[in-house]
UniProtKB/TrEMBL annotation:
<comment type="function">
    <text>Antiterminator that binds to cis-acting regulatory sequences on the mRNA in the presence of histidine, thereby suppressing transcription termination and activating the hut operon for histidine utilization.</text>
</comment>
<dbReference type="InterPro" id="IPR015111">
    <property type="entry name" value="Regulatory_HutP"/>
</dbReference>
<keyword id="KW-0805">Transcription regulation</keyword>
<keyword id="KW-0694">RNA-binding</keyword>
<dbReference type="Pfam" id="PF09021">
    <property type="entry name" value="HutP"/>
</dbReference>
<comment type="similarity">
    <text>Belongs to the HutP family.</text>
</comment>
<protein>
    <recommendedName>
        <fullName>Hut operon positive regulatory protein</fullName>
    </recommendedName>
</protein>
<dbReference type="InterPro" id="IPR036482">
    <property type="entry name" value="Regulatory_HutP_sf"/>
</dbReference>
<keyword id="KW-0804">Transcription</keyword>
<comment type="subunit">
    <text>Homohexamer.</text>
</comment>
<keyword id="KW-0010">Activator</keyword>
<dbReference type="GO" id="GO:0003723">
    <property type="term" value="F:RNA binding"/>
</dbReference>
Amino acid sequence: MNEGNMLHGSKYVARVAIQMSLSDSREQEKEYKAKFSRLGIKTAAVDYGGEFISSVNKIIERSVVAAKREGVIREIHAEEGAVAGATREALSQVMPKAIGLNVGGKIGIARFEDHVTVALFFGVGMLHLDEVAIGLGHRAVSS
């Protein structure tokens, strides 16, 4: 199916956020950003890492800051809260696997009209025994 003809609902926006979180480099992020922008989808991505419990607030803050910086959301309470809430939802999905361990990875954020999705790609581990996880959160905001 041609991406330009797809319905840009929550499922497609979630797919875009996941792709952003899986990007390998800043160059690839820029390519994805340009590609999705042509489809009317705003995106952002940002790296993070650290001990899971102590990183939760920082991950939420980084999501909101990146979304504002890249123009995914406006600097208004409802939109900032939507990104923070979606990030918290994504964190809760990976918490059982990550609690007490170090995490590192990337946050991918995507928005089309009233759909905002945050995807967290985690490498979870201790020493060289890494596991991976993806958390996903979605919120609806007024366009």
